[in-house]
Amino acid sequence: MTFGVEQERDWNALSDVEFRRIVRAEFEGNYPEALKNVPYRMRWSENGAWYLRMARKGWIAPNWPLEYGGMGLEPGKLLIFIEEGERCGIGRFLDLGIHMIGPVLIQWGTPEQQKLFLPEILACEQRWCQGYSEPSAGSDLASLRTRATRDGDEFVVNGQKIWTTLADDATHMFALVRTDPGAQKQRGISFLLIDMTTPGIEVRPIRDLAGHEEFCEVFFDNVRVPVMNLVGELNAGWSVTKSLLGFERIFIGSPKLPEYGLVVLERAVAAAGLEADAAVSDQVSQFAMDVLHLRDVYEKFAERMRRREPIGDDVSLLKLWATETYQAIASYALEVAGEPGVLTTPGEPSAEVLSDFYRSRGPTIFAGTNEIQRNILARKVLQLPMS
Ligand SMILES: Cc1cc2nc3c(=O)[nH]c(=O)nc-3n(C[C@H](O)[C@H](O)[C@H](O)COP(=O)(O)OP(=O)(O)OC[C@H]3O[C@@H](n4cnc5c(N)ncnc54)[C@H](O)[C@@H]3O)c2cc1C
Known about the structure:
By secondary structure, the protein is of the alpha+beta class. Helix content is about 45%, strand content about 15%. The chain contains 13 helices and eight strands. It has a four-stranded mixed sheet. It has a four-stranded antiparallel sheet with strand order 2-3-7-6, with no helix packed on it. Strand 2 (about 145-150) and strand 3 (about 155-160) form a beta hairpin. Helix 8 (about 255-270) packs parallel to helix 10 and helix 8 (about 255-270) packs antiparallel against helix 12. The chain starts with 15 loop residues before the first helix and ends in a 6-residue tail after the last helix. Flavin-adenine dinucleotide binds near residues 129 and 138.
């Protein structure tokens, strides 16, 4: 079976400079101006047309191997592709099918699962959300309680997930569920693929601080899932999940967000007429230096990736640095903007400062909170004794 669209050329054979030029021209020439740097997670109805274009072009899955319908990019080229997307301000869609489930199925899926799911992910007909977190299982994910009980050729799922990004825009969910309540925490967990149209699923959006409904609660009431949707062995879902923590960790520490924060800050300084204020200039320069240093360190990790070396646990420091610098910059921009920064209506320039402030809150929480990253650094990098 063949997947996806044939590539027009061997991208890895091009020089990095040439590859970057082609990608930049495609993005800059075609990505709609109005969708650049949108300060919230867009829905399929908003940016779906762009991603359908990418799918038709064969560029939807830069990280997948050629034989599975991806672009087959080596790590260095993949990094360029992602950097150019960030540079152009391209907003994500619900792309976990591309970034997470595709690679999982390529590694762990049966031929039937690959045939059933991969072509539809490549065509953007399936859009996947991540059902991990529960009300009492976030950082301590292994204490999750959503149950899946075997009944003939099906699992019957009962329980609740929370903070599921754009679950109401998703066609499918990959979920961690407890299949052996007697086993030790991680041991009794399985990885299940769930069609969101299955009877018994209820999705309730949660309104966030900024007034957007990006998260959802998802309730399961006797939801029947075919046994063939189990990925990997029964009760071995933890290993499947861990395999997702690969190169992706570097992208969470990308300097893109703080760099964008600096742009917003500079605009806020200009709007407040404070360009000549020495104290403000001093602080802005300090942030600019921090972001330059961050980019330098990011490049060192990127170099490891290009050389196909293990990224290492010290990559946690990138996430801390990027997300906390971004928060500090966004908080300062709000301070500089003064009253107009908070007393604002959507569409006004000052609204950008407030929405950037809100947007800077989430990254210290998702993908392993910053406290958990500090634990990793303490335990695995500094090898400090932990109580
Ligand atoms: C923008 C955003 C998008 C998200 N999208 C999704 C999604 O699509 N799917 C999904 O499943 N989840 C999603 N999440 C949820 C996210 O994974 C959890 O919020 C995160 O894992 C933290 O879990 P929690 O909220 O239960 O907080 P808790 O784990 O209860 O933590 C509360 C506080 O205690 C601290 N803490 C906890 N344990 C320790 C420890 N051992 N040592 C030190 N400090 C500790 C934490 O750092 C935090 O400050 C998203 C979250 C955000 C913010």
